[in-house]
Amino acid sequence: MKIKAIACLFLLGAAIGYAAPASENWENNCQKCHGADGKGQTKTGKKLGIKDYTDAKVQADLKDADMAKAISAGVKDEKTGKDKMKAYTDLTPAEVTDLVAYIRKFKS
Ligand code: HEC
């Protein structure tokens, strides 16, 4: 119990004190679904119907604020209420903004 509490504090400190670059966050947290190239052509991506971020139309339909919200609050399936994508609450607002900019760069 005590060890867990200490581990928690440590993780919290790490989250506040260290902002990882977007490329690192993408690789560690997002790429397994959205793909290294942002096309969403991964096993999970295909199953969940993830959008192709290299598609100019997809990019045009997405607003920065909605993207940031999806990252920090997660995406739920409207019918089942289940998480399609979890909320990344441990990312700082700056990291979320950087990730949105990172996603914008996939546009070809
Ligand atoms: C478990 C797989 C999974 C992971 C991991 C994941 N996502 Fe998603 N993401 C999804 C799904 C599914 C959607 C919803 C797609 C839809 O309904 O059109 C989504 C939606 C989004 C959206 C909203 C725009 C859109 O495509 O609808 C953004 C922005 C986004 N993800 C960014 C990220 C970022 C950044 C990360 C890493 C921090 C991440 N995702 C990690 C599965 C994932």
What does this structure look like?
The structure is a single chain. Strands 1-2 form a two-stranded antiparallel ribbon. Helices cover 58% and strands 5% of the residues. It is mainly alpha-helical and 108 residues long. The longest helix is centred in the first third of the chain and has 16 residues, at 2-17. The radius of gyration is 15 Å and the shape is globular. The protein has a single domain, classed as Cytochrome Bc1 Complex, Chain D, domain 2 (Orthogonal Bundle), CATH 1.10.760. Helix 2 (22-34) crosses helix 6 (93-104) and helix 5 (64-73) crosses helix 6 (93-104). The model has no long low-confidence stretch (mean pLDDT 90). The chain has six helices and two strands; from the N terminus they run αααααββα. Bound molecules: heme C. Heme C is lined by residues 25, 29-30, 32-34, 44, 48-51, 62, 67, 70-71, 75, 84-85, 88, 99, 103.
